[in-house]
Amino acid sequence: MTQAIIYPNDNGSVALIIPTPDWLAQDGNAIEILAAKDVPVGKPYKIVEFSDLPQDHTFFNAWEYPA
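^ thats the sequence. predicted structure below, dont judge the formating
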């Protein structure tokens, strides 16, 4: 399964980072390396299974970061 990274934006929306398969194939902990590189310093984040995210992005701006 493909993993994704989510974190809260300052405006209350949710940011979503979906790594490419090539990135994930680099290293066993590539998703953690990507989070350290791309998530803003000090922001909480979660690594989730992409399949666990809503597949209908019609209301993407209404997504909330889980507590």
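The chain has a mean pLDDT of 87.
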